[in-house]
Amino acid sequence: MFDILIYSYHLFYNNLLKDGTPIATALFAVSASTAIIILTLLNIILVTLKINPLETIEMMLIFLVIFVIIVYKYGYKKKAKIIIVSLKIKRINILFALFYFIFSILCLFCGPIIRSYIELGYF
Prior knowledge:
elongated
């Protein structure tokens, strides 16, 4: 899964933005997207179970550092540059990366709203 995301983000940053270090930017973007999704789902689960939710800023930074390390070891150190995937079905992989990015943005904006509705007892 990470190889498809890293490759798709790498193509985006390499082709559209003309970034000087597209692999580092792609690895950071995948890590940030994953951290946002995990933190949102974890906060919703903790609020649903009536456990005090985590402080968002501190936990976001902790998850971001954890996922940067994981993705760096998986995607950057393992193959020395970038994981070049033989993509036979490029449209599905691009749609998967686009869906993942859109879902992470939705988690970023809708997660606190859902959490507050759960705390107030609407769900």
